[in-house]
Structure formats: structure tokens, C-alpha cells
């Protein structure tokens, strides 16, 4: 399945919907959306991952880049990662640097 990343800003929250397979060839697309979110000075970065079927190490590198690029004061949320993606994140320990939620909770995330 082809990869796609689309950015939407809502109340200072950058939401990037990720679909398909995130690998070395598609990671630059994801990185470009993260850079746009940083330029817009988002207060939080939310990655909607329920339709992301696969994530290679290149995708993980972009997640780490996102955390660094957005800055220490910007919370990073991963919403509904599929089990294989969640395992990759947990094996690296990156799950300690982000918030992983089963669903998007506007009350929690959008209250800035």
C-alpha cells in the first residue's frame, strides 16, 4: 500500500495522518510534513497511525527527528498504532518519549 502523510492544524495542534507503509523511500514525505508542523509553531504534534501498516527504521528516525524538531515543550502523541508499529516503537524505548493513546481524545489533546 502506498504511503501518505497529510497535515491538518486544529487549535494549535498539528495532526498528521499516516497511511500505508513507511519505509526509506517514503520517509522524506513524512519528514516534510513534520517540518511544516514545526514552521506553524504547533503546540502539540499528533500522529494518527491507525492506518499505518508498516514502519521501517527510516520511519523511526523521522519520529525521533519530529521529537527533536518540535522541541522539548511540544508533546508528541501517537494515536492507535497497529501492533507491529507499536512493537517497533517499544523495542527502541521511544515509547518513553511520547504519549501513545488508543484513540484521539480532543478534550485531552486540544486543551492547551
Helix content range: 25-40%
Tally of DSSP β-strands: 5
Quaternary arrangement of the chains shown?
single chain
Tell me the number of structural domains: 1
Helix segment tally: 4
The percentage of residues in β strands lies in 25-35%
CATH topology: Transcription Regulator spoIIAA
Q: What's the architecture in CATH terms?
A: 2-Layer Sandwich
What do you see in this structure?
The protein is of the alpha/beta class and 112 residues long. It has a single domain (4-109), classed as 2-Layer Sandwich (Transcription Regulator spoIIAA). The protein contains four helices and five strands, in the order ββαβαβαβα. It has helices at residues 27-39, 57-70, 83-92, 106-109, and strands at 4-10, 13-22, 44-55, 75-79, 99-101. The chain has a five-stranded mixed β-sheet. Strand 3, helix 2 (57-70) and strand 4 (75-79) form a beta-alpha-beta unit. Helix 1 packs parallel to helix 2 (57-70). The longest helix has 14 residues, at 57-70. The N and C termini lie far apart (35 Å). The model has no long low-confidence stretch (mean pLDDT 95).
Amino acid at each position: 500500500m502506498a504511503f501518505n502523510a497529510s497535515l491538518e492544524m486544529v487549535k494549535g495542534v498539528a495532526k498528521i495522518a499516516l497511511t500505508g507503509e513507511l519505509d526509506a523511500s517514503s520517509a522524506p514525505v513524512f519528514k516534510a510534513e513534520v517540518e511544516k508542523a514545526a514552521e506553524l509553531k504547533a503546540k502539540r504534534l499528533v500522529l494518527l497511525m491507525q492506518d499505518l501498516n508498516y514502519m521501517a527504521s527510516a520511519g523511526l528516525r523521522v519520529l525521533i527527528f519530529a521529537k527533536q524538531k518540535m522541541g522539548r515543550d511540544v508533546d508528541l502523541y501517537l494515536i492507535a498504532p497497529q501492533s507491529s508499529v507499536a512493537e517497533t516503537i517499544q523495542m527502541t524505548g521511544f515509547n518513553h518519549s511520547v504519549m501513545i493513546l488508543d484513540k484521539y481524545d480532543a478534550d485531552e489533546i486540544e486543551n492547551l
